[in-house]
Design brief:
Oligomer: single chain
Structural class: mainly alpha
Shape: globular
Strand content: under 5%
Largest sheet: none
């Protein structure tokens, strides 16, 4: 039935779409132009290295060591920063954060570190930060990272204070990944490639540096690890790519279409000012909309071209990755209505507050 409805929807869409209309034709063409820009500017030197890094994190580094630091016996000054920054270490995306959150919460992590991890995880992953910085500017990329980490810790502490739930029981993870210094070196080598690719320096020097790092990475992947581990790394990298790229390309295309179809006046009236109202509206929109991993970047890019201000931009990015209507349903089932709706309100509140601050000083 689902497949039938999807086919029927596509048929109706193409049957009734007025392609003879100049605005429709220009919108579709603009969608393909934005795809062309992303393919040339952001895929090879940003997304592809990010997928390889995500595969490295998944296979070469010790995820269990990180997750154990979120347990009930960990000190707050350890568990909360680890929870807030674990997205960069665990390479979690919006589709994997919910089961991981449910797992660590049910195993005894407590409401505080668990909700900190839930809020920050998707927004701190390597691909999200670098794509934000490359497309929307390094100021916004760094602001997104710092604001998300700070807000996540504050949300977790407030949740623990309100519900007096620190976690209990033995905290045991089922992760069995083994990592060593070779894995860390391999990770840093790939990370340096992506950092260098994003720098605005002499092109010849950059190309030489990228060539040397790329050759070193290839040599280490070929000779530095057991063949089975290298195959698993490639398999995990491909798994990340096939789960994310189709949604990203679709999101980029529709962002290009929106840029032409959506009246600029509406965006400016709702999101065009660095004031509390516009920032709150952006937070609420982000909380209810579903953004597949990384698709928030082209959508925000399109809205900024239509006049969205800096403060609402950050608020939309912060709330958009953490919440969506489908994720709210799952979180409510895991936490119960009282805890879940408190968490939703805190996400909107802190996204709005940090958006207002960024609108003032950004």
């Amino acid at each position: 039935m689902k497949i039938f409805l999807l086919i029927a929807l596509v048929f109706v869409l193409f049957y009734f779409v007025p392609l003879d209309s100049p605005i429709v034709a220009q919108s579709i063409l603009n969608g393909f132009k934005m795809l062309n820009d992303y393919a040339r500017q952001h895929v090879l030197l940003c997304l592809v290295p990010a997928f390889f890094i995500a595969g490295t994190i998944s296979v070469m580094l010790r995820r269990d060591a990180v997750l154990k630091l979120l347990g009930p016996n960990a000190k707050r000054f350890i568990s909360y920063p680890v929870a807030a920054m674990s997205g960069a270490v665990l390479a979690v995306c919006s589709c994997t954060i919910l089961p991981l959150f449910g797992g660590i919460y049910k195993k005894g992590a407590g409401i505080g570190p668990a909700t900190t991890f839930l809020f920050a995880g998707p927004a701190i992953n390597v691909a999200a930060i670098f794509l934000t910085a490359r497309v929307l500017g390094w100021n916004l990329g760094i602001a997104r990272m710092l604001a998300t980490i700070t807000a996540a810790i504050l949300i977790g502490l407030i949740m623990e204070l309100l519900f007096r739930e620190k976690g209990s029981g033995g905290f045991v993870t089922a992760e069995g990944n083994e990592g060593d210094l070779r894995g860390v070196a391999f990770f840093l080598l790939q990370l340096s490639f992506m950092i260098l690719a994003g720098l605005r320096i002499n092109s010849n020097a950059k190309n030489v540096g990228l060539g040397l790092i790329g050759a070193s990475t290839l040599a280490m992947a070929t000779f530095g690890f057991e063949r089975d581990k290298t195959k698993l790394w490639l398999s995990e990298t491909w798994d990340f790519a096939k789960k994310i790229l189709p949604y990203l390309f679709v999101g980029v295309f529709f962002a290009g279409v929106i840029t032409k179809l959506l009246p600029e006046e509406i965006v400016v009236s709702l999101l065009g000012r660095n004031d509390p109202w516009s920032t709150l509206v952006a937070s609420v929109i982000g909380a209810f909309m579903y953004f597949a991993t990384l698709t928030e970047v082209p959508i925000v890019q399109a809205l900024r071209e239509l006049g969205m201000a800096k403060g609402p931009t950050l608020a939309l990015l912060m709330a958009g990755n953490s919440l969506s209507l489908p994720s709210m349903i799952v979180i409510t089932k895991l936490l119960g209505k009282k805890k879940a709706f408190t968490y939703f309100a805190l996400v909107v509140l802190f996204s709005t507050v940090f958006g207002i601050l960024y609108g003032i000083v950004g």
